[in-house]
Amino acid sequence: MLLGVGLPKIFLGEVANIIIYLINKSPSPTLNYKSPMKEWSGRLENYKNLKVFGVLTFAHFKKDKLDEKTTRCIFVEYT
Fold first, then answer.
1. Beta bridge partners of 60
2. Residues β-bridged to residue 70
3. Are strands 56-60 and 70-74 parallel, antiparallel or unpaired?
4. Domains of the chain: which residue ranges?
5. pLDDT one-digit tens code per residue, 4-53
6. H-helix or E-strand spanning residue 58
7. How far is the C-alpha of 38 from the C-alpha of 36, rounded, in Å?
8. CA dihedral in degrees (54, 55, 56, 58; nearest 10)?
């Protein structure tokens, strides 16, 4: 994932967190094709918040009226 996006190795921890997050949201054959999160919480999974790792995003910062209101960023982690 790091090589595909062109990020340095310091983001390896964020990649590991995203991989674990996606595994926990994915259906598993050992759980009769239910996700680990569904088994743990009992709620249906919501996949609407999934994003592509390394995609260009914009963060909003409230500044003065005439300053720029967004900053270009790269998506690296779910909160």
1. 70
2. 60
3. antiparallel
4. 2-74
5. 888 899 989 999 999 998 898 899 898 888 889 888 888 888 888 888 88
6. strand 56-60
7. 5
8. -100
**Whole-model pTM over 0.90:** no
**What is d(CA 38, CA 43) in angstroms, rounded to the nearest whole number?**
5
Alpha carbons within 13 angstroms on the beta-carbon side of residue 23 total 7
Q: For residue 72, what is the enclosing H or E element? A: strand 70-74
CA 31, chain centre distance (Å) = 23
Tokens 């999160």 locate to 37
Q: Is the dihedral of CA 27, 31, 34, 37 positive or negative?
A: negative
What tokens were used for 20? 């674990």
